[in-house]
Specification:
By secondary structure, the chain is α+β, with helices and mostly antiparallel strands. The protein is 38% helix and 25% strand. A six-stranded antiparallel barrel has the order 4-10-13-12-11-14. Strand 11 and strand 12 form a beta hairpin.
């Protein structure tokens, strides 16, 4: 049996279906599209924010396939003699583009919301940083627990002072020894300054004397020494000759007497002894004369000359050494004084570091371990391990921070992609992570001019912390929600319904569906983007219908 197009439609209505299935012929295969029609009596539900609006409740007519010229094709008649199902099957050479899912444009409230991660941060803080001058050993005896409320002057940390006390006592002994060394060097320099001129004067005098002695030796003494030596030899010889002559005369005188008296014998005996003695002295004189000539005179000459030369050298040495010795003593004294000043300086530094064995609170506040980095206390656990009893603390790092809890602000991480959306003065809400029902009035007060980390800027947000928010403390997390743009009535469409020109990516367009079911490209001007929806500020009106997806071209087209 062959059914007309009207009969087919009546048949579907008789079944009571609310959805009409219309077949769109496609080349070369088959295809179909289900178009659901809403119940005319059902109420219209408002579309949820960020989702496409529902289709109008008015039933849309089924769009008949059109030929390539755009004219509707005449009703197809089934072939005579063929079954009805085969006769009503669409022909593969008929062309029809599928309509696709659509979206009806409406005016609706539109806003752009930016959500930032933030942390509460105190405005006034005091870091407890261990800054010793020279000491490096700080062993913890006791430490105030994190979270303790302290008053100015309370003891926060105590370190073991025994080793530094020993070091101070050793340095006090070193200072005393240094003072004694300086006093000794000062006395030595004073005496050297007094002795040096006298020593130089004595050396000069000695040089003058030995020079004069050499001159006397060469001009007078040597010749006189030689002459005296010759004279003594001649005198000894003469003495022998005289004694012999006298003995000879006595012998002659007493020989004339025939009888020699006893007295005469005594006199002759004595004279003979005197002759023997004179001969002995003469022999000795000859020996001494020869020794004087051969040894003593040359030795004396050499000794005087060496003495003169030595005196000259000694004088020259004293003349050159004395200024150097004075200079050296002065330098040694200056060095001792410098070392003493350094010792005094180290001693003063140790005394300063001794005062660090107890750390006091600089102001009233709450104790936090470590220091915050952009409001976050990420290193608190590691610092707690260091400042436990018996722990060894390193210098030049923040051990604690005294935090004054009020006033506070929020330091928020502003992603670079949201930078254009956020401006100073924008207001919003800050929601503490631990108290999600609390909504604090917030306003952006400052944005860092440069990134503080890769892809992020700092946003400083002031918050209104009135009574009832005492539980909020620095370091707690929160989220900051800002609405940089809002419109009471705006045209916004799903972002996926916006397409970009292949040749010009700055040109955006939509595919508008006409009353005949055909779609056509239309360029539009876009505004803000919020989530998966984009504001249209030109080129599209409420009530128009657009495709949500770009249809695939049919094969052969």
């Amino acid at each position: 049996m062959s059914l007309s197009r009207g009969a087919h439609r009546n048949l579907w209505c008789a079944i009571g279906a609310t959805a009409i299935i219309s077949f769109a012929w496609a080349r070369p295969g088959w295809g179909y599209q289900v178009v659901r029609e809403a119940d005319p009596e059902a109420p219209i539900a408002a579309p949820a924010e960020g989702t496409p609006a529902a289709e109008p409740t008015k039933a849309e007519p089924v769009v008949e396939p059109a030929d390539e010229a755009g004219e509707p094709k005449p009703e197809a008649k089934p072939d005579e003699g063929k079954p009805a199902e085969e006769a009503t099957r669409p022909k593969t050479d008929e062309k029809k583009k599928p309509a696709g899912a659509t979206y009806t444009v409406t005016k609706e409230p539109f806003k752009v919301e930016v959500s930032l991660d933030g942390v509460f941060e105190a405005i006034q803080t005091s870091e407890i940083v261990l800054r010793p001058e020279t000491w490096s050993e700080f062993v913890v005896e006791s430490a105030v627990e994190a979270g303790t409320l302290v008053k100015k002057g309370d003891v926060l940390l105590k370190f073991d002072p025994r080793n530094i006390d020993w070091a101070i006592r050793d340095m006090e002994n070193d200072r005393e020894l240094s003072y004694l060394a300086i006093k000794q060097a000062e006395d030595e320099l004073k005496h050297l300054e007094q002795e040096s001129p006298l020593e130089l004067e004595v050396a000069e005098q000695s040089a003058r004397l030995i020079t004069q002695e050499l001159k006397n030796w060469e001009n007078i003494d040597r010749a006189y020494y030689e002459k005296s030596n010759d004279y003594q030899l001649r005198y000894a010889k003469q003495y022998v000759e005289n004694a012999e002559e006298e003995l000879k005369q006595l012998d002659k005188m007493y020989a004339a007497d025939d009888l020699t008296e006893e007295t005469e014998e005594i006199i002759l005996k004595r004279q003979r002894e005197q002759v023997d003695q004179a001969r002995f002295y003469f022999e000795r004189a000859k020996i001494e004369h020869a020794r004087t000539i051969e040894q003593e005179i040359p030795r004396q000459d050499e000794s005087i000359r060496l003495g003169a030369r030595l005196a000259e050298i000694k004088l020259a040495r004293i003349q050159s050494r004395t200024p150097m010795e004075l200079g050296r003593k002065k330098l040694e004294l200056a060095k001792l004084r410098y070392e003493q000043s350094k010792t005094d300086e180290r001693y003063a530094k140790l005394q300063h570091d001794r005062g660090l064995m107890e750390i006091y609170a600089p102001e009233d506040g709450v104790v936090y371990y470590g220091r915050p980095i952009r409001g976050e206390w990420s290193g608190s656990s590691g610092m707690a391990e260091q400042i436990r009893r018996g722990g060894n603390v390193s210098a030049q790092q923040a051990l604690m921070t005294i935090v004054v809890p009020r006033p506070m602000f929020v330091r928020a991480k502003l992603p670079e992609k949201e930078l254009a959306q956020v401006a100073i003065g924008q207001q919003g809400r800050a929601v503490p992570t631990g108290f999600p029902d609390t909504k604090l009035v917030a306003a952006v007060s400052r944005i860092s001019p440069i990134p503080v980390s890769e892809g992020h800027f700092d946003a400083r947000v002031t918050v209104d912390l009135g009574p009832g928010h005492e539980a909020l403390m620095p370091g707690m997390q929160c989220s900051v929600k800002l609405v940089p743009y809002r419109q009471a009535e705006a045209i916004a469409v799903p972002s996926k319904a916006l397409f970009t020109d292949d040749l010009d990516d700055a040109n955006r367009y939509v595919l508008v569906v006409g009353k005949d079911g055909e779609h056509a490209r239309r360029d539009v001007t876009v505004g803000k983007v919020s989530g998966d929806r984009t504001e249209i500020v030109g080129g599209l009106a409420a009530g128009e219908k657009i495709l949500l997806e770009k249809p695939e071209p049919a094969k052969g087209e």
